[in-house]
Write a structure and sequence with these properties.
Layout (H helix, E strand, L loop, with lengths): L1 E5 L3 H13 L3 E6 L2 H11 L3 E5 L9 H12 L4 E6 L4 H9 L5 E5 L6 H12 L3 E3 L1 H10 L11 H12 L3 H8 L3 H14 L10 H12 L1
Parallel strand pairs: 1-2, 1-3, 3-4, 4-5, 5-6
Amino acid sequence: MRIVIAEDDALLREGLALLLRAEGLDVVATAPDAAGFLEAVDTHKPDVAIVDVRMPPTHTDEGIVAAVEARRRLPGLAVLVLSAYVEQAFATDLLSHGSSRLGYLLKERVGRVGEFLTALHRVADGGTAIDPEVVAQLLTRSRPDNRLERLSPRERDVLALMAEGLGNAAIAERLFVTDGAVHKHIRSIFAKLDLAPTDGTDRRVAAVLQYLESA
């Protein structure tokens, strides 16, 4: 796995590189800003990019803009975005360009090495990884008049775990229920969110986007 890291905090940037190299992963480049990140992507053609949301010069959305541009230049690039806070608009922007091989984690998750590496590998393998705290806060912020209010508490639990990128078996294990029960809950979630089976549409992602957009 070839990795590029874009992070303006030198301590975190080099700490991440050391951590990943200690795990036997190939960090091919690090960059302190969006321009340097895109140059590294062009030069090294990495498999995965780890990108801070806020980078110089304005420390607003440079990381998200650069991540989207990097995926345009290198289709199939896996991107794991790091943020100090839950930023709903940035999470929505990222997922709106397609959810495959994408992750959004709070920086505090990096200190939980096992969870961080699990998310990194999930994204590299083609999945989606959204920080559980991001999911929880966005669900809490949902407007009371949106379709999410149709969901039962258990269905909201299942949706939250879907948003983290877990498959049915992993959700069943986390909630101590059967795979069949999870499948039933997911079908109910799709129905209540008016997500009909349509060719070319990933209903799991569409469900996640609905609550991101309603937060």
